[in-house]
Amino acid sequence: MHIHGYTWLGEKAMFDKESLRRPPGAPPTASSPLEVIERYRQAVAAFPTTEVPPLQTAHWLMKRASVIQGTWREPKEAGEWLALRLAELASRFTSAEEREAARLALLRQSAVERLTEGGDVSLGHYLKGTVFHSVSLVTCSPNRSSPDLPCPIRRTR
Question: What whole-number distance in Å separates Cα of residue 20 and Cα of residue 32?
Answer without folding.
Answer: 21
